[in-house]
Specification:
single chain, alpha/beta, four-stranded mixed sheet
Length: 179
């Protein structure tokens, strides 16, 4: 019951917030619209029985939506694309969701530690907008997603993540989108 009511409870709050923030100006309105789009998609993923809203990240920039994170199957990945594509304001969907098998509790704990180490290293790095980068780890594979302003920043973030002990590989799906 909570699962199906969650989006209906969240959407009015998100819409109200978007309207208030949109009054701050045209540039701010675009950010708010993207925030509204991302929040609407996230709520829809949480409500959809075929997708995991907790393992799939959503970013939106100028109506271009990037999905990242991990899915348990190609069917779940495809369902996430359908859900995102059905939201008003979405121009296109870039689905960078990786397929990964379920992991044990011990592996999940190890992955959480690796994610934390990568995030900390990104925050310490000069010339890396770490707050714009989503970091997820599954089975030692670390995924970097989101939007960054330069190819150099994308490359540097990938090198930093690869340099963390325990990271088996890096799936760098950061999108270069200058401001």
């Amino acid at each position: 019951m909570l699962r199906s009511n969650f989006p209906r409870l969240l959407l009015p709050l998100v819409a109200t917030l978007a309207c208030h923030l949109g009054a701050l100006g045209i540039a701010r309105a675009q950010e708010t619209n993207d925030g509204y789009i991302a929040a609407t998609i996230k709520a829809a993923l949480l409500d959809n029985r075929n997708t995991s809203g907790t393992r799939i990240n959503v970013d939106s920039r100028d109506g271009v939506v990037q999905l990242s994170g991990f899915a348990s199957s190609e069917a779940e990945k495809a369902a996430a694309t359908r859900v995102a594509s059905g939201v008003t304001g979405v121009k296109t969907v870039v689905n960078n969701v990786a397929i990964a098998a379920p992991t044990s509790m011990g592996t999940k704990l190890d992955d959480s530690l690796l994610t934390g180490k990568v995030k900390a290293a990104l925050m310490d790095a000069a010339d890396v907008s770490s707050l714009q980068i989503n970091v997820e780890t599954r089975g030692g594979v670390t995924q970097l997603a989101g939007y960054v302003p330069t190819a150099a920043m994308k490359e540097k973030a990938g090198r930093i993540a690869a340099g963390i002990e325990g990271v088996k590989s890096v799936d760098n799906v950061l999108v270069v989108k200058p401001r």
